[in-house]
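Work package 3, deliverable 3.1, input record:
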Amino acid sequence: MSRVLVGVKRVIDYAVKIRVKPDKSGVVTDGVKHSMNPFDEIAVEEAVRMKEKKLAKEVIAVSCGPAQAQETLRTALAMGADRAIHVEVAGAEYETLQPIHVAKILAKISQDEKADLVIVGKQAIDDDSNQTAQMTAALLDWPQGTFASKVEKSDAGLTVTREIDGGLEVIKTKVPAVLSADLRLNEPRYATLPNIMKAKKKPMKKVSAKDLGVDLAPRIKVISVEDPPVRQAGSVVPDVDTLVAKLKEGGHV
Amino acid sequence: MATAIVNSARQVGRLTSAAKRLYSDFPKITTHYTVHPRDKDSRWTEINMERMAEETDILIIGGGPAGMAAAIRARQIAEEKGAEVRVTLLEKAAEAGGHILSGACVDPIALNELIPDWKEKGAPFDTPVSSDKFGLLTKSGRIPIPVFPGLPNYNHGNYVVRLGHLVRWLSEQAEAAGAEVWPGCAGADLIYRDDGSLKGVATGDVGIAKDGSPKDMFERGMEFHSKITIFTEGCHGHLTKMVSKKYNLRENSEPQSYGIGLKELWEVKPENHHPGLVEHTIGWPLDKNTYGGSFIYHLQAGEGEAPLVAVGFVVGLDYQNPYLSPFREFQRFKLHPYVKPMFEGGTRIAYGARALVEGGWQCLPKTVFPGGCLAGDTAGFLNVPRIKGTHNAMKSGMLAAESAMELILSGEATHENGVTPTLYEDRLRESYVYKELKQVRNCRPSFHTSMGLYGGLAYSAFSTLVRGKEPWTLSHGGADHAKLKPAKECKPIEYPKPDGVITFDLLSSVALTGTNHEADQPPHLTLQDDTVPVKNNLSVFDGPEARFCPAGVYEYVPLETGEGQRLQINAQNCIHCKTCDIKDPSQNINWVVPEGGGGPAYNGM
């Protein structure tokens, strides 16, 4: 396997409290702390480990987003990726960027770069879509190993252990393939300062969706974004009769 | 023989159960290597402890207004002189401005000097002060106190600023000027030359487990060797603490005195919003012997932005009653009939807290030592009556940079010698920084008499009138932590329950700070002695750390084995305010830096 492509997304940091915009069009992102999507960190780590085990020769990190996406790519480079591709998408186009667009972009880049493997996080913690890996595989007509918690080399390709509702499922797939990383796949390394400094010298290419022939017109429209309803206070009842009476009152029985 | 064996078995049994009791009565809390050195730890014998090293010319520790100003000024001079000078700035927050918290009402004097065209360059200085209000709150009323030109709290010409945003902008200017800014990098260890001068600073190690052992992904920090290191860590910096001890910087200074400042950002109803209004109160809810007060600053709303008000409360950390909770004083302050209407119908969108320097002139340390110097609030330049420190921080950063550059360009400062930049301290003395601080030096200490607040106000009025020319200098009377009285001498304070609308509980407030730390690392709130909290803090002072920590880090919880309590440290909640290190009556808590990138995620605080 020579080339591994890893998709990384810049999202609001998981520890930050999200605030819905007063006009309900989305959440506040201005000035809010962002970091690499945690599942994408796991994807990068897996790709870098493959390179260290000599299962891959080159790791390419890709991110779609505004100028700040370059910071996320630098983190991937600091973790061990060899080069980065920044697909610049900004402003209104970025607000309506959806998994279908990212899948088309990743598919095109995979073909251009002759990648053997695409690894992305299983879902982004902002939209929780869990679609990009699957759609990318379909567009490329490649097999997919999603929710991967273990990936091993086999004679014909890869053996992937998947986390599913019932437990663990083990599948065998040929390469090229698309994988999506789940939580237990690995524990990502730190991007430490000496590596961050080295990463500044690694190549980063900037392209546009247009260059890749991908149309970014939205297929889904977000009507409104709202806070979950505030939890109502409960009340303590003195005995069972009162409980039954209250349940009947509320139309629950 | 059998009896002997049985007896010794009983002895062993007794010893083991005694050990168990001792161990479980005082479970191990601190695992950090600063308390349990790794060279004596068998888990570390195989680990390669070598560090990569890089050379830089000027190393700046801390990316706040002082640090950023120093970086920019150094690079400006390098440009002017066409010199190749490497300037490296390390900041522990994940993003520039992430750990910055301040009112803030800023005097633009330093920024005007540093970047005269700041307006064209888009500095977030959008809210000029339009009016000043000052009042003494009583339980149900307010006595207005006039503010006029000449008074330290007259703010005409100043700006209401979201300091975190200003620091972010300064960071961009610093990088544009050619400085290296490394966020997410904690300065952790000091490196000395054989002659004792400061050689540089090492960044923190990562990948140490909570029990102090190395994890698979352990990585050693890296060293920066510099010609001059400028410490700009903000109030009560932890490296500054070490450097002050090493070079005896405080031998002729009074112990520093501090306050804790808590702050919230509120979206308020338009009718309650008066952009440019700067308001301060003193009095209620604090008693006359507890120094403190509030600030309410109205920010200009940008295009499509909601009207924002910054509200905060400061409590002097020389308070005496261990039952006092600065956080709960802040919350109940908002219920005052004069204050509450402003926040009705509004939404709280941010919360945070940070210790601030109040000692002023008497507490200034020696700011220079072989190989480096201190600038900004880590030295302690905040002007208490003016309630301003940012301009002094920036000016001191600029002076430090100018002095460092002079020594580097003349060849005096090299990597081999650790020259003491005495030039810097001379320049500070001649600057408005020292002049201001000297002029107001007697105001804060004048609050220490039995007349408390009223004595302080009266004396400060007098001192302001004579422009600080009175020939004496009042003392603060000792360190803040020594002023705490035992619990049995004090009355508990009845605080109202949070209503969830205007006042809030601690944990939901901490959630708003966005603070987080890698859970599996040694707690960075280290105790020199794990048994002291229960033996002293709890038994004598009823556990004041559980009350003064604005992030719920310290909790006394019942022991699993039955009677008694133990201290639980929720290190993940820490918002890096430094209050515990300052106010711990046992001075047993030593705040050290956690893994870089951890801590609050403030946005324009």
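DSSP finds seven helices and eleven strands in chain A.
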